[in-house]
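anyone else get weird line breaks when pasting these?? whatever heres mine. first is seq + tokens for prot A
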Amino acid sequence: MDTWIDDVDMEGGLNLVLNPSFELLEDGRLIGWNVPEGMCRPDEGERRTGRRSLRFENKDPTNYKLVVQPLKLIPGRRYASVAWVKTLDVQGEGAGICVEWKDEEGNWLGGVYPKCLSGTSEEWKPVGTIFKLPVEVNGKRVASAQLVLYMRRGTTGVAWFDDVQVREMIEPNLKAMLIDPPYRGIIKAGEPRDIELELKVGSKGSLEIRLDREMIGSAEVERDTERLRLHLPALKEGGHRLTLILLDGEGEQIGYDSISLHARSAEWFDRATYIDGRGRLIVEGKPFFPIGVYLGPTEEEHLRRLAGAGFNTILCYGYGSGSDPLGYMDRAHRFGLKVIYSVKDFFDEKGDELVERYVRMLKGHPALLAWYTNDELGLEWIPKLKERYDLVRSLDPNHPTYQALCRPAEFEEYFETSDVIGPDPYPIPRHPVSMVAEWIDKAREAMRGIKPIWAILQVFSWRVYSGHREDRDPTYEEERCMTYLALIHGAKGVLYYSYYDLFTIDRKSGLKASEELFRSRFGNLRRLAEELNRIAPLILFGEPVELEFESSGDLHLKAMRYNGSLFVMVANAGESRSELRIKLPDGFTGGEVRDLEGKARGEVENGVFSDSLEPLECVTY
């Protein structure tokens, strides 16, 4: 999928790479590049443009050297990184390009690592991505960045690099996003209502607003991001288009955008699966909290086990194009399980055709909950993801789409590519569990608080993928704390990754989990699902309450009124015991406080509730 290169050509600014085609030499050395001796040299025999390219050869898989150039990038902005690569007998994970960033002390904070090129390529091929440079990572400010050309660890062979680019992606003069109504521009037919837009304006000017070609308003806008409220008349059932035209002082058009609106009947809201104004999934007219798991095998044995443990949702990577999709859906329905159906892999030349086939086949199946359209694809895929989102919702207006995302600094860029996002922080054992809270907060901010978050939480050991013995399973206490943190910070659904990894210790060596280890791992998962089923009504129906509280550690808190009672969820994400003091609302002056198990907790004195929480302890009072 090289169409993203066209977007770089159209939207990219000046190339920020010095000596991008390796034409400039001084005393035989490449200007601007830090090149490892003995492995790299200018090559006039192979070139894409100009007189030469950079030849990179590695014969020893234990060698790991980098070609580096410092970059002057501005945090918070979007960039494209591209290198044209040609390979000869490249064995291993391949040759390619990456961009990394560091803090003020020069410590690595992160990077983007596009898929590299292996084997032998007859033609030059682009390797790269579009990315957003974060302002900070884990509380540390991004201070510098560098461009790297390399072969990944353990890779051997010959690669040539040419026409390397890092370019800032230029934003359009006018960008409009619909904030209210929050779900797909859907409103009730026959009812007038206000709507709210978020505008990103690149140049000051006058805005003309048209509904189905009829002028309905105008506004003066500054160069900034701002909100605009409009009043719409009652619309007849069907599709409508809101058009915004930005004019300069001379009346010349300098910006344009449009938004689709869909007026639905009252009957549609009774039968469709959709997201309501509170970010809740509505299924058959009732709020539904997905308690799900990523799945591999779909035989009855596994579906029966998951349904019996209290799960209501499954997402299987193998479907897609797995054999007998209707049989899979029927089995899930038989066990009362809803399916997030995966079409994430259909991005080749026949991808749209396959998506249409499966959506038309399954959109009426009672087990269908949502469509899974993206699994961590980078920013270079945004144009295609927008097209895919538009295709799926046009074919099936009655089910939402869902995607997994793994780069918090870029979450905002995916706002228009799905209905629900799933941040997937997997912290254990390299990061604290509070990483979950940070990612959920960033996701909610990126989605403007209007698109729901279904958190994807870790129950696997990183050793399954890395092969490193020090990568361990998360403990039950860590898994439970991550779950609480996701809920406290606003998740409207939870999926655990992954059921199939519970059967494995190390994929690289083929080491499988013993029956005893699987039972232990799945036992933890069952306990999580059981507790989620008890908490879900609070999330779905509780009314939020703001409470003043003090703590001696890293405590996270969410309070709700439900069925006339006050409930407070608290998680201690810290490594030490923490003291909690909550100022209760008027009317709560004394009495006993209990957890969900009915156990008395803490004490109330003079309208203040006090308790202690051990490291990773979580309580719903």
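and prot B, same format (seq, then tokens)
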Amino acid sequence: MEQNGMSWIKTAGRFLEMLTQYNLKMPHAVYGGENAMDNITAIIKARGAKKVAMFTDKGIEGAGLFALPENAVKAAGAEYYVLDDLPPEPSYMAVQKLVDQFKASGADLIVACGGGSVMDAAKLASVLVTDDYGVKELLDNPGMAQKCVPIVLIPTTAGTGAEVTPNAIVAVPEKELKVGIVNENMIADYVILDARMIKNLPRKIAAATGVDALAHCIECFTSNKANPFSDLYALEGLDLILNNIEKACDDPEAMTEKNRMQIAAYYGGLAITASGTTAVHALSYPLGGKYHIAHGVSNAILLAPVMRFNSEHPAVRERLAIAYDRCCHEAVKVHTVEEKAAWMIARMEAIIEHLEIPTSLTEFNVPKEDLEGLVEAGMQVTRLLNNNMRKVTAEDARAIYKQVLDESMKVIEGMDEADGTQLFKRQGLILQMMLALKQICNHPAQYLKNGETDPVLSGKTEMLLDLVSSIDDAGEKAIIFTQFKEMGDMLVKFITDATGVEPMFLHGGCTIKQRKEMVDRFQNARADKFFILSLKAAGTGLNLTAATHVIHYDLWWNPAVEAQATDRAYRIGQHQNVMVHRFITKSTFEERINDMINSKRQLADMTVSSGESWIGRLSNKELREIFE
């Protein structure tokens, strides 16, 4: 049957909607099996290449994997140039830097050996032997790219499928997002699948990249763009992954299973080329772009929640049932569509749990306060959201992200406080979350470390600068406390820009001589009106009676420590009134913790030596009150 440009095909007794027009573009040649790497020599000679640019990264070189393709290039007698200065999860600027180095090399063939980032950078280089446009321009108009140099891709993981896709993924820091550049001219000319390249892959990386391949296959099979071409590879890839991934990751000698995973990852890439991923990848991009969570881990975190959401759509349930029929080889079978769909999702969850991939955002310091930012960024990835069979609204995205964020509290609440090891881990997780939230309240750039230090991005910073302006106009002086060296550096810049005079900053890295000079200047020089101090560096022995204002930019959640710091301005010789300003971000956990301290006498009576360790001992109920 055909209707509105879609066809309905009968599969396993059920009608499913599919595209009526579809295509699949593939590499010119793919080499696999034993000693597949040796084909590089023949490729170079057949192409008549004189100079080869070899893309890789320092991790691949350090692991000794680069020697295999390097020796094959040497055997061809070609001159070669190594490009290995690429960070993990690179931004488009980092990729452009590598592309510029490639252009300067004058190479006429590219051989790329690495994971998805390395191969994507090489693909972009293959279409950027021009000064007319660069990576940034392709973000807005990917269609302008034209193949300039042939390319050989050699994956060192079994997961990304980048060796066969027309996609290149780069981080865009200003959007806190990863963005895909898609152009069929970036499809590789040659692919080498040599299982020796993944034999000693660390389990953690093998697991994350393997689950990435799993996401590729299941998303493409349940995509609006699913078609006979993509189904062919997605189903075969799913079967291989669901029945081989655990042993391939667990056993370094399981070469049969590793080879199957490598082929499955390639099939997943072909499925992407013919179809496309959906909401799992769309909603995972902000986690990678903003929090630098590895791509495979981001997908693992969202895979089950999104697939469970999608399974409420009848067509997705049908497709999951078909996948079950193909991939489940257990003796005891389930029978209904609903049971089969549930089995598929449970199997994916079991794999992720077995491979010990985090499904909570606790370990990555993602706070609930960032929920709206995640929703906004995720909803921008319309290229992939449009592929999702079940429409994803902003409210849907919010619910999915909230479900994942709630896992953070479930991890903490599920720990046995009677178990000393778990209790210690629980306290660490709580303090880690609190530290991240405190940094975000200070200024987003302190947490993100993205260099975007505009004062308008933080209400706390704007309020500080208003106060600084008033103090400066009145000819008075202030000491400003922060716990963080990086925040102190930012405050130096903010206040310098606002007043034209650079404030002094006393921190733990200052010498005794520098400390004495700063104190003398603040006490005696009229021009030095603002003195920033890290709370620990300013703990004892300072006399700063020139100050008429004490500002606690971020709060140390121990009244005794704050009082000790404030006392720097109340020493013998102080003859002026001193105003104390405590900056608390309204309607956040900062305000709730402050209220908790004020309401509990035992907290108000803490000593300096107590530090903030009490935070880690909060009950589950108290934590819920703070975070919700």
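btw re prot B: The CA atoms of residues 242 and 304 lie 14 Å apart. The two ends are 51 Å apart (CA to CA).
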